[in-house]
Structure to design on (428 residues):
């Protein structure tokens, strides 16, 4: 462990704090990063100093807090700080600062640093739900994703203004977990370092950071992957679902303290070890597994790409080619999500919609038809087999877009939103 921590200390970040109420979380973020052996240099905007003091951040980080371009008599703080950092983390990142980043503005030390950087930039948004969903903010977020900026969050929850929705900054523990994972993949900065030292392959992480508790003790049933509908002894009908999103949601639910049962169609993925996993092949087998386990579920998340139809009479032997046409009679499979949502005392149901066109229109229709409180929708051609995605959440309050990110990040945001709606429903 000592060797790991010594290597971890080689990682240096600039923690940028902007002017939002979530700035108080930056103190815990800095403390936890330092506890993991990461050297933290804090840089604040002038607005941030109205929410948290430089004295607090200096005491936590052990380094002078940078706030003014002219603290260095040469006026080169933005260059020097970037060159010795392995990454820049902006937490919280306000709507205003995100707009600056997206448009290349540099009117203070922190924004100038980001423009002059030669290291990765990671952003943790925090703002009111209306500001987050505003078209201008979503354009800026999309531009940052195109520019290669890593976005962590936001999630759904109660906000400082008293409203509830998407826009809440990730908690410090979740941010540390993601940041350490990213730092472990980065090469070391060479400036001011001993070049003979070996790069860090990974950073040791305190087990206490592995879980948040939004789903602590809650039973979650998840379906994932494709189904396979036999035509004969060797052929079948299936689809291109990789199962990655369902498995990411499984991992995120475990991280959030849930008791998880995963019903998985045939995939090439290894299930998370802590989850109870039931392997199935056909839609009928998945339906049977869900029926057996759903009565214990508090939340049901239907991520699997279940075949709508199956062959009426699969042939027990391989069909031989005869040079002519073959006609297959297809019959409907049961709609697992509709069945679960219609149960007495049904669990909180989350559905998925993968569309190739008219995403919003079809997603809204699907949520209404299946009578479920929450549906996540994405374009199939952008999601299938990919490691990242962008989705839109639909609930009674409207649309909540989640910008392009890796599927585990999206899974955490989705589950945070679902957990908030689930808890809200229990209070009614």
């Amino acid at each position: 462990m000592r060797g790991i921590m010594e290597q971890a200390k080689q990682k240096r970040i600039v923690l940028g704090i902007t002017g939002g109420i979530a700035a108080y979380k930056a103190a815990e973020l800095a403390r936890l990063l330092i506890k993991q052996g990461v050297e933290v240099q804090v840089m604040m905007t002038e607005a941030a100093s109205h929410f948290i003091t430089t004295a607090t951040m200096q005491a936590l980080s052990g380094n002078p807090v940078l706030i003014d371009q002219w603290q260095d008599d040469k006026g080169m703080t933005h260059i020097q700080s970037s060159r010795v950092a392995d990454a820049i983390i902006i937490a919280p990142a306000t709507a205003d600062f995100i707009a600056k980043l997206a448009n290349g503005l540099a009117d203070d030390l922190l924004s100038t640093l980001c423009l002059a950087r030669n290291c990765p930039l990671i952003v943790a948004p925090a703002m009111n739900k209306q500001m987050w969903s505003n078209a201008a903010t979503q354009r800026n977020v999309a531009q940052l994703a195109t520019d290669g900026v890593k976005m962590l969050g936001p999630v759904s929850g109660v906000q400082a203004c008293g409203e509830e929705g998407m826009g809440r900054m990730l908690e410090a523990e979740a941010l540390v977990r993601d940041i350490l994972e990213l730092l472990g993949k980065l090469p070391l900065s060479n400036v001011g370092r001993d070049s003979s030292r070996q790069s860090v392959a990974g950073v040791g992480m305190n087990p206490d950071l592995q879980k948040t508790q939004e789903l602590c003790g809650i039973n979650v049933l998840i379906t994932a992957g494709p189904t396979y509908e036999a035509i004969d002894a060797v052929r079948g009908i299936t689809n291109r679902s990789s199962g990655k999103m369902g498995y990411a949601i499984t991992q995120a639910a475990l991280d959030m303290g849930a008791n998880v049962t995963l019903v998985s169609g045939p995939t090439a993925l290894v299930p998370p070890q802590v989850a109870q996993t039931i392997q199935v092949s056909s839609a009928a087998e998945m339906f049977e597994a869900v029926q057996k386990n759903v009565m214990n579920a508090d939340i049901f998340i239907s991520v699997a790409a279940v075949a709508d139809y199956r062959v009426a009479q699969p042939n027990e032997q391989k069909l031989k080619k005869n040079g002519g046409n073959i006609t297959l009679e297809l019959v409907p499979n049961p709609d697992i999500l509709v069945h679960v949502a219609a149960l007495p005392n049904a669990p909180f149901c989350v559905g998925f919609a993968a569309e190739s066109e008219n995403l919003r229109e079809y997603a809204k229709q699907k949520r209404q038809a299946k009578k479920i409180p929450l549906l996540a929708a994405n374009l199939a051609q952008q999601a299938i087999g990919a490691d990242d995605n962008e989705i839109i959440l639909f609930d009674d309050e409207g649309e909540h877009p989640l910008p392009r990110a890796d599927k585990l990040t999206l899974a955490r945001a989705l589950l945070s939103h679902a957990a908030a709606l689930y808890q809200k429903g229990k209070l009614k």
Remarks:
- Residues 217 and 233 are 43 Å apart (CA to CA).
- Residues 407-427 form the longest helix (21 residues).
- The domain at 2-209 is CATH 3.40.50.1950 (Rossmann fold).
- The chain has two domains: 2-209, 219-312+323-427.
